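# step 3/5: fold
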Amino acid sequence: MQDFTVIVLPGAFASSVALSVDMLSTAATLAPRLGVPAPRWQICSATRGPVRLGEHLQLRAHPLPRAPDGNACWIVPGLGVDDPQAIAARLAGADVPRVLRALRAHAAAGGRLAASCASVFLLQAAGLLAQRRVTTTWWLAAALQRLEPACQVDADHMVIDDGPVTTAGAALGHSDLMLHLLRQRFGPALAGAVARALLLDRRQLQSPFMVPAMMAQGNALIAALTAHVEAHLPTAVTVGDLAHHMGMSTRTLSRQVTRATGHGPLHLIRSVQLNRARALLENSRYSVEAVAEQVGYGDPTALRRLLRQRLNATPRQLR
């Protein structure tokens, strides 16, 4: 009987797989010193022989479990793809149907499921996200929401628990997922010891890492809007200005931007301003007042409020 089963698909993001292995191994080593049970875990795959991960690394894995084990939490590291088209192509792979059947059977047996980054789309393909609140890589959130309108995608958070399903954000957010799972099953002492041993910080939000240009994901409208806002700083561009520039109504603009990014056009404007403000605070000696003026805020208090809301930080913390 296992506590954790790591499900590895060919081409998986090697760092996510390595984080799973290293963090579970570290937990098993530290557990006896803390007087808590050591995690039992295994690595499994739907393919035979060594599993080739991204960057040509290989890993030995057991076959997928034959019998359901409602006690185990199955963990799916990132798929190693980072745009909707590549995800769709990966999910069309010959090995995926078997994995989807196994995920459904495990869920039906009462088992927990955890996924990070693009592997959250695997849970969606298995039909396991409906009526749940989830997260994923922040620049893929809108694509996931389109695929599964019945779930609530919250890209601001790094890790989200909803019933038996736990999801996490981009790439190395997998470390936050693993700490959460260890804390959940073995308590804060073991999770904290693993974090200290591996020098890991707990991050609750993805929003500090969002970059407007990456949210475009090849969308010409979002790229054009982002460029327009950036080009006109320090002038504060309005949603009406953007609609006029693109030759459409504000309602049409709002609908198209929300469909592409998961947020409205005002959120996009604020993201561009925030990105510029953060760069100035991190790389210059400008005062907060001067930075506020350069990003279109006449009032530095408004900039401080935006930093607190989006980054959970003060200007001093970004210096």
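# step 4/5: annotate
The chain has a mean pLDDT of 89.
# step 5/5: archive (pending)
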